[in-house]
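Students often ask why inverse folding is considered easier than folding. One informal answer: many sequences map to the same fold, so there is more than one right answer. In these notes we will look at a single instance of the problem. The structure comes first.
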């Protein structure tokens, strides 16, 4: 940065221009302070944005699995799933999440084709794993442990609270 200073007062002929090169310590300090203020304002916004993104991913994963469970139930009710693949007392719900990925044999299909409902078990964005909390049709609505008979519903096992103040485990 070039700073020009004029020495002299009235007479323009005697006015001399001095040029100094470089920044003063005060200028550098002012710029660094401005950068720190801007960075401190941006960091909370970035954290909230990351949290919102994970919450949106959780909503999508729960919707994807619940839709697959509903599609399995519909196929079982319509008789599209072979009777050997449906457990007695399961009420037409899948025995576990892996069954939705592996698929079940179609009823009355000599080729042995399988109906698949999920490509893979989604990763829980909160726990970074594929372990989900499960509820069976026979479980009580407020049950915290899976009975093991079938998979009626899924939820995250993360204990945190969402930006709107609700618990992630209670998300429907």
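Output (designed amino acids):
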């Amino acid at each position: 940065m070039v700073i020009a200073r004029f020495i002299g007062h009235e007479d323009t002929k005697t006015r001399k221009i001095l040029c100094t090169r470089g920044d003063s310590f005060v200028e550098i300090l002012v710029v660094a302070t401005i950068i720190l203020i801007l960075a401190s304002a941006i960091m909370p916004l970035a954290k909230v944005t990351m949290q919102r993104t994970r919450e949106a991913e959780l909503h999508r994963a729960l919707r994807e699995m619940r839709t697959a469970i509903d599609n399995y139930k519909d196929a079982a009710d319509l008789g599209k799933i072979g009777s050997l693949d449906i457990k007695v007392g399961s009420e037409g719900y899948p025995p576990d999440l892996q069954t939705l990925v592996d698929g079940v044999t179609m009823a009355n299909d000599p080729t042995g084709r399988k109906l698949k409902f999920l490509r893979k078990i989604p990763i829980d964005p909160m726990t970074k794993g594929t372990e989900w909390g499960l509820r069976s049709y026979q479980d009580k609505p407020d049950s915290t442990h899976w009975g093991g008979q079938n998979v009626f519903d899924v939820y995250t096992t993360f204990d945190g609270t969402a930006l709107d103040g609700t618990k992630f485990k209670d998300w429907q």
